[in-house]
Specification:
The structure is a single chain. The chain is 62% helix and 5% strand. With 445 residues, the chain is mostly helical. It has a domain of 282 residues.
Length: 445
């Protein structure tokens, strides 16, 4: 024993999360059958539940867009609608796979440039964009390719607000600078969106309010922000919809007619005309679906319902799958926001928590608005069903949001391991190191 050297007496064992790693015969220090993560401490697999919801929605999209494209199937190549939708979905899948591999800190770095670019596109669309059904929402690129800046703006605003709220934290919530910047930007963008889409403007306000709550804004200041939103929205509404205002080139008349038709309501015996056509055929589709539906491809209203594969696809889904299918789809979206909330509540840093919840709220709120409109609870307004409705810009935008959510689930530290927490802090710039407000009560306990 006396001949044993000091070095031989001292055996340094490598540990992972406090547990010793078994030493192999070759002295590599790696436990047989276990793979060490090559991407560094804190890095885990993307959230399987978010992935699962995303994949199911893509499958539903392929089936139901094809089912709802009866008018195009009879006049064009029978598989053309399916092929077009599959191309956009595959493009979205590539975006999701790419973004989930990026550390979430890069989203903060490019938040402001993306916001400036998207704001410029939105202004251009408002002034000189392609007008369809009286609304300037598109920028024509080439041939059948168009871009909808209002769809892009939703995600750009979520990203920008996550940056502002995440980098302007103080003990107890968001500081005044973060609140002021967020409020001003939301009002500016909402004003631009309101010109051609009242629903988009209202949705943006609700998403921003939710993100402020998630970011830890104090209740008193939150009340002030809501009051400012309500006051300015009220002034704009009164000015825009007053009898003395000049409504030339605006959609005021469209909005007023839609609200009047909504308040009037419809009944099965009403004569179908241009004003109630969408509502009537949508109700027929919902009624025809009964409890379990008629099966994909057996919709009879897709031939008559305008925009059956986009703004009214939920009615075709219910006609195909019944009340049961409609409820299951609703629960899928709710599971998405619930899972995002689960991940956000465990994030150590504020920015990733706000970002993943902002993306989830944006997707789910738009889904709820689409469903509310289709079933007749709200007035008619064009809102695609996220990740399902036909439409390239919407699918690609929502896929970006899913990719960002998966990035957060992969790279954000959601455990109490001090090694991982320290590694995350060393990886992040100083302005992203603010604690997640949801974690503060746990630290105090």
């Amino acid at each position: 024993m006396d001949n044993v050297t000091t070095a031989e007496k001292i055996r340094i064992k490598e540990t992972v999360d406090g547990e010793p790693v078994a030493t192999t015969a070759d002295g590599s220090g790696k436990a047989p059958g276990k793979k060490r993560q090559a991407s560094g401490p804190g890095v885990s697999k993307p959230d399987k539940y978010i992935w699962g919801v995303y994949i199911v929605l893509m499958i539903v999209s392929c089936i139901e867009v094809f089912s709802a494209s009866a008018t195009r199937v009879t006049s064009e190549n029978i598989y053309k609608p399916l092929i077009e939708q599959a191309i956009f979905l595959l493009g979205g899948l590539a975006i999701v796979i790419g973004l989930q591999k990026l550390h979430y800190k890069w989203f903060k770095k490019y938040a402001t440039p993306v916001m400036v670019l998207t704001l410029g596109m939105l202004i251009y669309t408002t002034v000189a964009g392609t007008s369809i059904n009286g609304a300037n929402r598109w920028i024509h690129i080439y041939g059948p390719i168009n871009i909808q800046p209002p769809e892009l703006m939703k995600l750009a605003m979520v990203l920008f607000l996550a940056k502002v709220l995440g980098t302007n934290q103080k003990p107890g919530g968001v500081n005044n600078r973060g609140i002021i910047i967020s409020t001003v930007m939301v009002l500016v963008v909402s004003g631009l969106l309101w010109i051609n889409g009242l629903t988009n403007a209202l949705m943006l306000m609700f998403v921003s309010i939710a993100m402020m709550l998630i970011g830890g804004i104090e209740w008193k200041k939150f009340g002030i922000v809501v009051a400012v939103f309500a006051m300015i929205a009220g002034v704009v509404f009164v000015h825009k919809y007053s009898k003395d205002s000049d409504t030339t080139g605006t959609r005021v008349e469209v909005h007023e007619n839609r609200m009047a038709n909504y308040l009037k309501g419809v009944s099965p015996g009403d004569t179908i005309n241009d004003e109630n056509r969408q509502t009537m055929y949508s109700r027929f589709a919902l009624a025809h679906g009964n409890v379990i539906g008629n099966g994909p491809g057996n919709s009879r209203e897709s031939v008559r319902l305008p925009l059956a594969n986009s703004d009214y696809i939920y009615s075709i889904i219910v006609e195909d799958t019944g009340f049961v299918g409609g409820v299951i789809l609703l629960l899928l979206y709710l599971c998405l926001v619930a899972r995002a909330g689960r991940v956000a509540s465990k994030c150590r840093r504020a920015f990733p928590a706000i970002l993943i919840m902002g993306c989830a709220v944006m997707i789910v709120l738009q889904a709820l608005v689409h469903m509310v409109i289709v079933v007749g609870i709200g007035p008619v307004s064009g809102q695609p069903l996220p990740l399902i409705s036909k439409g390239g810009t919407s699918i690609l935008t929502m896929s970006m949001a899913i990719g960002m959510m998966l990035s957060v689930s992969r790279f954000a530290v959601t455990n109490n391991n001090k090694k991982d927490i320290k590694a995350e802090l060393n990886t992040l710039p100083e302005d992203l190191q603010a604690d997640n407000p949801a974690m503060l009560p746990q630290k105090q306990n």
